[in-house]
Amino acid sequence: MNGNNNHQAEEAPIVLEARGITKQFPGVLANDRIDLVLRRGEILALLGENGAGKSTLMNILYGLYHPDAGEIWIKGEKVTLHSPGDAISRGIGMVHQHFQLVPVMTVAENVILGEEVTKAGGYIDKRDANRRVRELSELYGLEIDPTIEVDDLPVGLQQRVEIIKALYRQADILILDEPTAVLTPQESNELFRIMHDLTEKGVSIIFITHKLKEVLAVSDRITVLRGGRSVGAALPSESTEASLAELMVGRKVILQVDKDDARPAEKVLEIKDLEVLDDRKHRVVKGLNLEVHAGEILGVAGVQGNGQREFVEALTGLRPIVSGKIFIAGEETTDATPREITELEVAHIPEDREKHGLVMPYSIADNMVLNRYYRPPFSRYSILDREEIAENSARLVEKFDVRTPSIYTHAGNLSGGNKQKVIVAREFSRPVKLLIANQPTRGIDVGSIEFIHNQIVAQRDAGVAVLLVSAELDEVLSLADRVAVMFDGQIVKTLPIEEATREYVGLLMAGSEA
Amino acid sequence: MELTAEPRRETTSWLIRNKWTVVFGVIIAGTIFAALDFSCNNLTCVTAVLSSSLRQSTPLILGALCGVIGERSGVVNIGIEGQMLMAAFVAFLANVYLGNLWMATLIGASAGAFMGLLLAWMAVSLRMDQIIGGTVINILAIGITGYFYIPGLTTQGKFAPITLGPLADIPLIGPVLFRNGPITYLAIILVFVLHYVLFYTRWGLRTRAVGEHPRAADTVGINVYKMRYINVILGGALAGLAGAFLTLEGVGTFERGMTNGRGFLALAIMIMGKWTPIGSWGAALLFGFTYAMQTQLQFKGVNLPPQFIGSLPYILTILVLAGFVGRSRAPAASGVPYEKE
After folding, report:
1. pLDDT value at position A494?
2. What pLDDT, on the 0 to 100 scale, is given for residue A255?
3. What are A206's strand-pairing partners?
4. CB A204, CB A173: distance < 8 Å
């Protein structure tokens, strides 16, 4: 989709303006004199890394935070937003990154919640509510059945409900916070179409993202934030991915991972007909087959929620297996415990670093020996050797460039990128045969992503078999030597990287046998 | 790519979808008939057992309603027992010193509401673990009522049954349903009122949203704290009403620890009733029936140890919880303190 339409050129009236917005949090200046202008009927991309201040700024515009300094003007009027209610009544609607929908309620109930039209005694006429939602969805071309429970909708349609929710509140300024994070490429394109339709009808959109491709594809103008400041404005027609990345990070970034061809050797991981249940006892991994060889990176691409989490948990011994077999380095590990698997020289970078990767209230030093603390040299006769542990972590902090005031800092106080580096350091600090990396760079800064990607490639070159699971298609495509596409609990296709085009993989991710 | 994926939809009939509920219902109904048949040989006895069931169920359903609106708004109330006990005590004292049953009822309900306020403060404002908060309530109630208990107080009596005119003359149903004390009538009315409010009104929609996904409710301008406070306080008043029933309509006097686990049974009843008022009423009637049977069996001189008969309601609780908990689903945010960003 090519959306570089500058038809709503500079002459369109300004609907939202932020002047000198400043917000101080303890220890961080999250927003530092940020200016932002949104014109009627345009899509303004707000680009920045995690921690650049995008979310803070949007939460200020949505009335969730109050700025320490600065002014907000909406449609030519200076306003003070005390709460989301204030923002809503001024026509601002927000689609949060994590959908704010009640899963057990219907589409219509979710849409009207908080703005219910009632009859005597607070009675809600459900049929009337359904009719209103249907009218809205027809008006804006957002097809949806108002009587379905949100729980039963695919993610793309849940997002549609969020948009309808905002429109129901008569929003004409729409803030979309990382809206494509959970979508397939095709669903993203559908969203971009909707965004264009909305701007045609006079809605103005702020589109928050860190994905450069999308910015270039849909926005009319771009504002880049870095370290809490707005560091530049750009037009898509005059920008490239590289120029935007440089603005965003503040230095030249190598977007393409630099690596030689893989030299795959013996089989290290073999999975046969794996079946696994999720927490609700539904079968979500449905007969999965996969092989990973030493010296290659196998990237598993797939939209979140297609069984990847359960698959990796089963692989690492964290979740029981219903049927099927797993072999690691020739040994069957189908019913092995996490420690037995770890001892087979398996490294694991878990999806949720705060829940499964680190112990938040422990120091960095302790976190760095979680996989080996019970053995010499870190402990003898069940007594920990504090000196060894400290030396070990001092060495790793240096080697893996963990930015921390001290090795005794609690893991919970580190930034996302540094947390991830602590995990990587721990996992790579001993001999590894198999690396299982699930979403290794989710939500971390570009600098750390670059570092971790290089570490993963270095492991591969050292002969490690790497299983990379990621919902970021770009990550899979830039790192992997072979791509396996996961859909609905199965690997629907495995193909060499040369044949894995974005479009083809995208179609496979959406479940169509193209 | 078309995005209008077919949503998962139930196409099977109601009977098949709810087959376990149906089977369970048939078994229960059969057991009730068998039990009545076994222990009674005339209609008077059946009437007596059934109206005793209804009376026994009153504090249970009121307690369960307290649990329902609390959990629907996201606050687990394990302190129902304490709220009931406290209210029973206060209502009794009010009756002793004021000599007015209606005033005493109101004061009892207020005492429950006050205990609700205390729980809400701990659970919502202090964001304490709600199980601990409820336990505090229970221990507090046992301590206070035990310490201030005055033996030998007498009252001007208790609520007499109100006969609802000709309705009361209908055979079997009449004496069971239309010859009851005022709190029992009120409890039945409240079941239907709360069911309607919870599922058909704005208040109910917001309460349920707050209990399922408080952040979502917050982002559309609903005050999560306020909703939880009000629901928990109202719940406290309902538990208070249950306590008032015990001293003002049921027993007529106060004894130490007289709630005897009813507040906890109420939670089991709430779960069996799938967090709905009408469902809970059904469950409460079933439990009331086991209480009534217990008396009837002892009266009949059945050759079973009285301890065993006395434990019937609790055995039923275990069975019900074992059979139902897996299948019914609590409100998602129940028990989780909410913190604004």
Report:
1. 94
2. 64
3. A44, A175
4. yes
Helix or strand or coil: residue A415?
coil
**Distant-in-sequence, close-in-space partners of B104: CB < 8 Å, separation ≥ 6:** B91, B92, B94, B95, B98, B244, B248
Choose the final residue of a domain: A170, A202, A228: A170
CATH number at residue A461: 3.40.50.300
Task: Determine contact, residues B283/B273, Cβ cutoff 8 Å.
Answer: yes
A362 vs chain B: nearest CA distance in angstroms? 23
A157 touches chain B (CB under 8 A): yes
Please state, in angstroms and rounded to a whole number, the distance separating the CA atoms of residues A430 and A342.
11
Please indicate if any CB of chain A lies within 8 Å of the CB of B131: no
Inter-residue contact B158 to B263 (CB < 8 Å): no
Question: Using CA of residue A20, residue A21, residue A25, residue A30, what is the dihedral sign?
Answer: negative
Residue B191 CA: distances (Å) to CA of A139, B53, B62, B277: 41, 16, 8, 5
Give the residue numbers spanning the domain of A463. Answer: 263-345+433-514
Q: Which of A352, A346, A363 is nearest to A433 (CA)?
A: A346
What pLDDT does residue B7 have? Answer: 44
Task: Identify whether A96 is part of a domain.
Answer: no
The answer to whether A157 contacts B5, with C-beta atoms less than 8 Å apart, is yes
Residue whose structure tokens are 């930034």: A415
Question: Which among A407, A335, A304 has a CA at the least distance from the CA of A98?
Answer: A304
Task: Pick out chain A residues at pLDDT < 50.
Answer: 1-9
Which residue(s) pair with A348 in the sheet?
Answer: A436
Give the Cα separation of A60 and A505 in Å (integer).
Answer: 38
On whether both A384 and A274 belong to a single domain, the answer is: no
**B9–A123 CB contact, under 8 Å:** no
- DSSP structural state of residue A437: E
Torsion of CA A162, A168, A169, A173, to 10 degrees: 70
Cβ of B213 within 8 Å of Cβ of A153? The answer is: no
With a CB cutoff of 8 Å and minimum separation 6, the contacts of A378 are A369, A372, A384, A385, A388, A389, A392
**A404 vs A412: CA distance, rounded Å:** 11
Compute the distance between CA of residue A112 and CA of residue A131 in angstroms, rounded to an integer.
12
Tokens of A478: 């830039």
Among the partner-chain residues A113, A121, A143, the one whose CB lies closest to the CB of B220 is A113
Query: Hey, what amino acid is at A31?
Result: N
Q: Residue ranges of chain B with pLDDT lower than 50? A: 1-10
Strand order in the sheet with A173-177: A92-95, A173-177, A204-209, A43-48, A221-226, A229-234
Residues A394 and A512 both lie in one domain = no
Q: Are residues A78 and A208 in the same domain?
A: yes
Cβ-Cβ contacts under 8 Å, B197 against chain A: 122
Q: What gap in Å lies between CA B276 and CA B196, rounded to an integer?
A: 10
pLDDT for A1? 39
Cβ of residue A512 closer than 8 Å to a chain B Cβ: yes
